[in-house]
Prior knowledge:
With 218 residues, the chain is an alpha+beta fold. The protein folds into 2 domains: 2-83, 3-Layer(bba) Sandwich (FAD/NAD(P)-binding domain), CATH 3.50.50; 95-212, Enolase-like, domain 1, CATH 3.30.390. It has helices at residues 68-82, 111-116, 132-136, 165-177, 182-186, 197-204; strands at 2-6, 9-13, 96-98, 103-108, 121-127, 143-149, 155-162.
Amino acid sequence: MVVLHSVHGMFVWETPLWETFWATRGLNLEAANVEVNQQDAIAIDQAMRTSTANIYAAGDCTDQPQFVYVAAAAGTRAAINMTGGDAVLELAAMPAVVFTDPQVATVGYSEADAHHDGIETDSRMLSLDNVPRALANFDTRGFIKLVIEEGSRRLIGVQAVAPEAGEFIQTAALAIRAGMTVEQLADQLFPYLTMVEGLKLAAQTFRKDVKQLSCCAG
Length: 218
């Protein structure tokens, strides 16, 4: 049961909102032997292929994450593959942002997801009162959390709650895609008095107490 309280009263749903996937209604997918998941979303692989040869799908009708930039990228790759190409969509380093105040941004693994996949992790969480830009903005709400693979020390996930989390999560995505270790991230040059510098400071916490560092300490 889902209950929503609003100024207009209380709304109650007896059935989970995700039980039926509206985007595939009326498509008669069974006739084409196109498989769907439990939410009626079309199941596709990394090349946008469905379970039926020569039928491709992209966007909100599929089981991919529901983001416009994912749909656009999937549509491009589906078109390439339908015309004889060989393009895939890799979502392991897909950033996502919720535009609340402060913003919530994620990319890669959370610790729980990593452990579910059998990956041993280490992590650190840096509160924004350790980030000079946040102090200058008089807004230290939030944190930056880094998740690394314990053996290789590669960065595999970042979660951030910050007023500008959506503006720096792509830097974390690029670091994950490049296979950077947390030490490599900590050694990068980041411009002082920017929110993205928080990623460097968070990486430094694996080896240092950043509260003891002077401004811009490498």
